[in-house]
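INFO worker-7 received task bundle
INFO bundle size: 2
INFO processing item 0
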Amino acid sequence: QVQLVESGGGLVQPGGSLRLSCAASGSRIYLMGWYRQAPGKQRELVTTVTSGGSTNYADSVKGRFTISRDNAKNTVYLQMNSLKPEDTAVYYCTAVSGVGRQYWGQGTQVTVSS
């Protein structure tokens, strides 16, 4: 069993920055990442990182968001720069264990508005 605890959401003006954190406890983790869900839309992939450091980004966030991971702490970070109103969503941390089971955090609200 894996528990995920997220932090760092909030309200920011367009062009601003936020940093999200997600700490995982429990089983050995292979992949961690972030999804987001805006009102009335489906949950979408934002970015992922493997235990080996391979990353994947949605086209909409490339060049603005950076994912990083501390394997010793089983923690993943999402640095979000140049935020836009369309980045407003609930951001969910996800983790995939070594046996392929996926887990989700409770979600943290990110609102980009002036």
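INFO item 0 finished
INFO processing item 1
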Amino acid sequence: QRQLMESGGGVVQPGGSLRLACIASGFSLDDYSVGWFRRGPGKEREAISCLSSSDYEPYYADFVKGRFTASRDSAKNTLYLQMDKIEREDTAVYYCAAVYGTFFNPIGVCSPSHARNGMDVWGKGTQVNVSS
């Protein structure tokens, strides 16, 4: 049925860049609000970037603003997360997720309840290890 599959994770040095992709199958991302989340070592999963189905610009958590760029390619039914100026604290398992419908503001998609387990569809995650 509905599935999301992340790719592009790996080992990267501090200050480096990485591009994650998330391919959706079994449903159209155009009908869903979406987001990128991550879980670092010994931490709970947190939201990093979200976009409502009615919005043009994503919401970004403060700790990634100016460094990460999220985007949606409707033709490819794919989400992307361009990670630049990567820091050691960015080490985590990165997840993409989708929830059906439209939100007034993309920050609503990035709520703590959604980050924990409130989205409709989750990918299985891709590991990003930041090491020098």
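INFO item 1 finished
INFO post-check item 1: The longest strand covers residues 92-100.
INFO post-check item 1: The first helix runs from residue 112 to 118.
INFO worker-7 idle
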